[in-house]
Write a structure and sequence with these properties.
The chain is α+β, with helices and mostly antiparallel strands and about 375 residues long. It is built from eight helices and 17 strands.
Length: about 375
Amino acid sequence: MSIQINAAFDSGNIRLVAIEGDRVDLEIVTDRQSDFFQWFYFRVAGAAAGRTLTFRILNAGQSAYPFGWPGYKVRASTDRLAWRMTGTSYADGVLEWRWTPDTALAWFAYFAPYTMEQHEALVARTALVPGMRHRELGQSLDGQAIDCFDIGSGPKQVWIYGRQHPGESMTEWWMEGALERLGDAADPVTRDLLAKATFHVVPNMNPDGTRRGHLRTNAAGVNLNREWHAPSAERSPEVLCVLAAMDATGVDVAMDIHGDEAIPANFIAGYEGIPSWTEARGERFYDYGRRLAAHTPDFQTEQGYVKAAAGTANLSMSTNQVAERFGALAMTLEMPFKDHDLNPDPEFGWGSERSKRLAHAMLETLADVIDGG
């Protein structure tokens, strides 16, 4: 039986170039109306047990972030539940790995996927949790719901949102962990937080990009995290409806959840460079990072992005816009596609369960600082 490659499913992305013997040549498809690409997710069928196949992604060197490939390892699964790292190399613009199957089917992905079907299941079970209040803030360009869960009764307004970049699937694993923790009424940390704050959680801001298998953009090829200064119904209704809801409640704390292609560590980026920046406001952000690093070995403060110089912050990005607009303690969490090298896992790397646990740690740390500022 011949080998078949298929990505015609929720969040799938790959194009078959050629199969020559045991070698499978592939290309990642660009986001619609965009040059961005890096996310891939596909199925392999028809390989004989014990037959070693070599997969090559030929256009990896032209991807959005080719500097992220060195040190990266493809995730492989035979049940779509456990996603293990597999030996991967990158040279001359080609990403390559080998696979010796012992099952009829195998799946490969850039990171453990979180499809729209998984999102709908998350929404359904979360809506049944006592105290969780579901609302649909608006709809995407493809007409999919922008779901939000409100929980708690405290005066502080905490907004947590993610998946602006759909290929950063670790984001929604983190969201699953956050929603599970916020829904645990028996947990003393949760009870304390919900008495002091009202949480608004948007687990997926880019359902169209998620379903289409995009890396970074929505159905119109728009990077949502460059729309926060002036979102529109034509280009970015996803941001438009979330920002309108934020305007209605105000924002005291904001967490924008992302993934980073190159840096093998978890870190947070802040709002240095906004017009209203002060050292006192900055200290609130730095204090949170120091506390989180002390709380969990899965976080660190040494590696991260270069800080913006005074007055140079890009206000089209959500963390900068929300910090400036509301005076909020705002942050962008970045999780790795690689592994958290300071605390590595040789089998799974940085994966779904660790992303969920980091959400717990961040909420626990928030409980220590929610009274301040």
